[in-house]
Design brief:
Largest sheet of chain B: 2 strands, antiparallel
Strand content of chain B: under 5%
CATH class of chain C: Mainly Alpha
Number of strands of chain C: 2
Helix content of chain C: over 70%
Number of strands of chain B: 2
CATH architecture of chain C: Orthogonal Bundle
Number of domains of chain C: 1
Radius of gyration of chain C: 21 Å
Chains: A alpha/beta, B mainly alpha, C mainly alpha
Distance between the termini of chain C: 28 Å
Structural class of chain B: mainly alpha
CATH topology of chain C: ABC transporter involved in vitamin B12 uptake, BtuC
Largest sheet of chain C: 2 strands, antiparallel
Shape of chain B: globular
Oligomer: heterotrimer
Number of helices of chain B: 11
């Protein structure tokens, strides 16, 4: 009798102890841009990520998580400060969320130096894909250049011979133009770097007109994209010189702001709302029921969602224990989740290897312009920096 | 050649925008001798007023009136509540108080309208392009802005130089005590001048709204250049504000348009564009410094 | 009667003097105890906050010399703050890349070298820009200092090699003897020591004949010129000293944040410094410290409650400008203006 009650007592104690341990949720820090003209991008990433958490009832991969979201205000210094707070005061070991490459450049080194893990749902500058790659740094979206390589290939496929290319003068902008040039087989008749705080593109419109290109490639994410497209149309260029862009320059928010004027623009992307694989249908249904049929997710939301799934798969593999980053890495690199894009795996530099698709803006069934998937541009495409990474 | 022409037009259009802001600011500086860091707030309020009403009504004309009204009312309110008490204070207190106004107005706009930028569509009539010079289709709306600015400049000059109130404004800027001694209600005069400045700034804002995006902080971006225009042109002079605005607008745009391209020959494109952009921005301030050192009262002295 | 008055006055003076000494001792004790208290209550982020306040106090104090004591409304002081920070950042960059600056100046990660270089660089910038600016006065002076600061801002934005507006990362803090500068508490004490030394020197300068002349220039420049003092020279010296002080603060800031960007030189940063000086009390010794503490403290506390904290700060600044004659410090000193200068 006594032995049995002792055993029972011990069993209860052990269960209680493990229950208490299992109840402490894994803290995930999200540093993202929630204010300013690009603020909707951070909101999309956050909403996509939290949708995955909600579907699992506050868990990822069966492990309870607590997501702490902070706004970097589009300032590298602020991103750095938040990371400092997460690492030192909140003792967070897993950080995600950064939208812009300049903020990533200032913040990610601090995270990695502290031995913590960073999983990028968006920004993926070239240095971290190559010589600065790190075993605790993962990217779930795309490598910056690769995104624009798809646009360069698209422009070549469409038969254009002379291109005028523009992007803002920061790491992602440089990666964009480098990526485009790598796969565009025609001639670049003009190359311009705009400013991240620029609102008036009239001088650039004049330069485009003077160069007589047969296609324009531009990378201007967020609010910059809206301003650029509006002024491109106002300058009378939209009807005369076709445009080829990558997904960030024509996401559904920009499309909504531009309206019918955007019809005909060619977009290359790794995801579109009309993909019919099972994972995407689950995502779209859940999204519609949470946010209503009027708010279409951008690809940023799909990336936030995929990032949550990827982290969930890794957390499941380590049973929620972030004590060993090597164990986490082994679990993460298996990519044991169903991406809304379809095929997905990690390359040796822990950046994605995935397919790229050609989309076009066309008039949808509801009378409003929509992004329609037309065909595939590339399959199983990695990035140009993988060989420089020693992992 | 066409490129040069188009860029010059861009410069003139930018100059007109600066003039609308600078005209009000130079009057406020000149007549009331008060540093108003919050002048950009009226630019923003005009733009927001127009964008919000434009969204509801779909009519640019109504939106424009709303923008003007919003800016004028804001100007009168701010003058009555805060600025009035700053006339007797030193520059330091004025800077502090008007900086506080900027924070309050910007944050207030964020609270009321959120952080997403607003957009105002260009009026249908002006949404096309016009070929002033064959081969250069220039946006009609930008031409309209240039025209509007010229009309305002002429109207303002007439007002200042040919009406009685204009005479009081001129007198108030150079011989304040005398004007007061003559029994003129100086308080009312100041309020009117401030309101007029706010109105002009609001006009600039609502004209800019269809081109750029309407967002918090848009006033401060253009305000620094406005100060430069006022100093180059001469404090208190409308003609000076116009001359200064044209100089700054055209020089800034031409430098921005051509300097990076010139530098492309000697360095990588990214470095060239960064350096070119930085140098062309510096260029304007360099000009201002030169003017201040050689002719501190500005290009055109206010009529004494 | 007169003797009694004199005795009362002397007693009052001694009382304020004693009060002031007590206040300084309390401040010092609080500052020294802070890291231990912060760790004890489990919020080590307070140490970082305090370090930031200390650094900005030095910057604001340097502005106070020309703005408060000298009456020169310089709207471009952030330029010298930023130049000091960039000096440290660029030196570290060249150290890290193991390639000398301009081909012959080697980089360094030693604090004892980097800081004097930063201070000297800022002083040189202040000398050149000040020599030009001080030829004007009043509104023109304010505008020209703003213009020059913007020029330096755009200069750093245009230098893509040093990051441009993406900023420059300083991977590790500069080393100082054997101290572990990566440790927040150690770094805090280093900054505190520098600040104490700076404020001591500042006090001596302000109490000296130089400080008296500067105060006189603020009150009535024409009269001083009439008695033969070269006011331009005095103003320029003050301007250079102020710039050097800002450079010192900038050098510490680069080490603290491990990041330099042109934002440090933006005119809104100049505005922040002016607010700290005016809010705390211009032309007082500890006004800038109080102002820095208030502004940064308010920002941090208010951000916790609402993201719209500037809607609270704005009206506060307006009220202080309209209703106090000398910032917050003036609320605590005798209305007769017993403070020195």
């Amino acid at each position: 009798m006594r032995v049995r009650s002792w055993l029972l007592g011990i069993a209860l104690l052990v269960t209680a102890a493990s229950a208490v341990e299992a109840q402490a949720p894994v803290k995930i820090g999200m540093i993202t841009t929630l204010s300013g003209p690009a603020g909707y991008i951070g909101a999309e990433i956050r909403d996509g990520f939290m949708l995955a958490v909600d579907i699992e009832g506050g868990k990822l991969g069966g492990v309870p998580v607590q997501v702490i979201v902070e706004d970097d205000g589009f300032k590298p210094g602020q991103g750095k400060q938040i990371a400092d707070k997460f690492l030192k005061s909140d003792k967070i070991k897993l950080i995600t969320g950064i939208v812009f490459s300049n903020i990533a450049g200032a913040t990610v080194p601090d995270v990695l130096d502290a031995g913590a893990i960073y999983v990028s749902p968006n920004a993926a500058p070239s240095n971290f894909a190559g010589k600065d790659c790190n075993k605790n740094y993962y990217v779930v979206s795309w490598q910056n250049d690769a995104l624009h390589e798809s646009a360069g290939q698209n422009a070549t496929n469409l038969g254009y011979k002379k291109a005028f290319i523009l992007a803002p003068n920061y790491q992602a902008g440089k990666d964009a133009l480098a990526g485009f040039k790598r796969y565009f087989k025609g001639e670049v008749v003009g190359e311009v770097y705009t400013r991240l705080d620029q609102t008036d593109y009239a001088p650039e419109m004049a330069q485009i007109r003077a160069a007589h290109p047969d296609v324009v490639f531009q990378f201007h994410p967020g609010g910059l994209g809206i301003s650029f497209m509006r002024q491109y149309q106002q300058a009378g260029l939209l009807g005369t010189i076709p445009m080829v862009v990558a997904a960030p320059s024509m996401d559904t928010t920009i499309l909504k702001a531009i309206g019918d004027a955007a019809i005909g623009v060619n977009v290359s992307a790794h995801w579109n709302a009309d993909f019919d694989n099972e994972a995407n249908q689950k995502f779209m249904t859940a999204w519609r029921s949470k946010f209503g049929a009027d708010r279409l997710p951008t690809f940023y939301a799909s990336q936030g969602y995929d990032t949550a799934l990827a982290i969930g798969a890794a957390l499941k593999g380590v049973h929620g224990d972030l004590g060993s980053t090597d164990a986490f890495r082994a679990a993460m690199l298996k990519a044991d989740f169903h991406s809304v894009r379809g095929a997905f795996k990690f390359g040796n530099n822990q950046h994605p290897i995935q397919d790229w698709y050609a989309l076009r803006v066309e008039k949808g069934s509801g009378g409003k312009p929509v992004l329609k998937t037309i065909g595939k541009i590339m399959s199983n495409h990695g990035d140009a920096y993988a060989k420089e990474c020693k992992l | 050649m066409n490129l040069l022409f188009e860029q010059t037009l861009n410069g003139v259009q930018f100059g007109v925008m600066l003039f609308l802001l600078a005209a009000g600011l130079t009057l406020i500086f000149g007549v009331m001798r008060i540093i108003n860091l919050a002048h950009g707030a009226f630019y923003m309020i005009g733009a927001y007023g127009a964008a919000l009403v434009g969204e509801r009504t779909g009519s640019f004309a109504v939106a424009a009136l709303a923008g003007l009204a919003a800016a004028a009312v804001a100007g009168l309110v701010i003058e009555y509540v805060v600025v009035r008490r700053l006339y007797a204070r030193d520059h330091v207190q004025q800077v502090l108080a008007t900086f506080g106004i900027i924070l309050l107005v910007n944050e207030g706009a964020t609270i009321l309208f959120g952080r997403q930028p607003l957009y105002l569509p260009i009026p249908q009539l002006l949404s096309g392009t016009v070929q002033i010079v064959p081969g250069v289709p220039y946006p009609a709306y930008r031409l309209a802005i240039i025209a509007a600015g010229l009309i305002v400049a002429i109207g303002l000059a007439a007002f200042i130089n040919r009406t009685r109130i204009g005479m009081l404004v001129r007198a108030g800027s150079t011989h304040r005590e005398m004007v007061r001694a003559l029994g003129v209600n100086i308080r009312l005069l100041y309020t009117l001048v401030f309101g007029l400045g706010a109105l002009l700034a609001g006009l600039g804002g609502l004209l800019a709204a269809p081109l750029l995006s309407v967002q918090v902080g848009m006033g401060e971006q253009i305000l620094i250049l406005t100060f430069v225009v006022v100093v180059i042109g001469g404090v208190g002079s409308i003609r000076g504000a116009f001359a200064g605005a044209m100089v700054v607008g055209v020089v800034d745009t031409l430098l921005r348009g051509f300097l990076p391209t010139l530098l492309h020959r000697v360095m990588t494109v990214s470095a060239a564009d960064a350096l070119g952009g930085g140098l062309s921005s510096m260029g304007i301030y360099l000009i201002m410094a030169l003017v201040l050192l050689i002719r501190p009262q500005g290009l055109i002295r206010a009529a004494s | 009667m007169l003797q009694a008055d004199g005795a009362i006055a002397a007693k009052a003076f001694k009382r304020t003097g004693a009060l002031r000494a007590a206040g300084i001792v309390a401040l010092a004790c609080g500052a020294l105890a802070l890291p231990f208290a912060a760790t004890a209550i489990g919020d080590p982020a307070l140490i970082s906050l305090a370090t930031r306040i200390v650094i900005y106090a030095i910057a604001a104090a340097s502005l106070n010399l020309i703005l408060g004591y000298g009456g020169l409304v310089s709207f471009g002081h952030a330029a010298y703050f930023g130049v000091g920070a960039y000096a440290v950042g660029i030196l570290y960059f060249h150290f890290h890349e193991a390639a000398p600056f301009l081909g012959f100046i080697p980089g360094t990660n030693r604090l004892l070298i980097a800081v004097p270089v930063a201070v000297a660089t800022s002083a040189i910038f202040a000398l050149v820009l000040g020599a030009l600016s001080l030829r004007t006065a009043g509104l023109q002076f304010i505008m020209i200092t703003l213009a020059f600061a913007q020029m330096v801002f755009f200069l750093f934005v245009s230098l893509k090699y040093y990051g441009g507006d993406d900023g420059l990362i300083v991977r590790r803090r500069d080393v100082l003897l054997d101290f572990d500068m990566a440790d927040d508490t150690t770094f805090y004490f280093v900054c505190l020591a520098v600040a104490a030394a700076y404020f001591f020197v500042f006090w001596r300068v302000v109490e000296s004949r130089f400080g008296l002349v500067l105060g006189g220039i603020r009150q009535n420049e024409r009269r001083l010129a009439a008695i033969g003092i070269s006011t331009y020279r005095y103003k320029l010296v003050a301007f250079v000293i102020a710039g050097a002080g800002a450079g010192l603060a900038g050098a510490l800031m680069a080490n603290f944040a491990k990041f330099v960007s042109p934002d440090l030189l933006h005119w809104s940063q100049s505005g922040d410094l002016m607010i700290m000086v005016i809010l705390g009390g211009s032309a007082t010794l500890f006004g800038p410290l109080i102002g820095a503490g208030m502004l940064i403290g308010l920002e941090t506390v208010l951000t916790g409650w609402t993201e719209h904290w500037q809607a609270v700060l704005g009206p506060l600044l307006i009220l202080v400008a309209l209703f106090t004659r000398g910032g917050v410090v003036s609320l605590f000193t005798a209305p007769g203006g017993a403070s020195h200068a």
